[in-house]
Amino acid sequence: MDIKEGVIECIETIISEIVSGIVVDENTLISREIGIDSLGIVSLVLELEDKFEIDLDDYLADIRSCKDVKTLIEVVTKAKNS
Description:
Layout: H1 3-15, H2 30-34, H3 38-52, H4 60-64, H5 69-81
Helix pairs in contact: 1-3, 1-5
């Protein structure tokens, strides 16, 4: 599984607890279209850390500022490659 697919899968896992019927892709807006709040971001970070076996503590500010899935994929890629 590549990073893009993994990030989208994690987001779908988190939002399935909130809403259904939303298709997530790179252009999906995180807060506006899928409604992930601050607690959802924490859950998403934990899910991403587990899936990719990485520590995202140094990237929390970057993750919180992500507007869309594409930017989140870039942050996870950066963390995975460092």
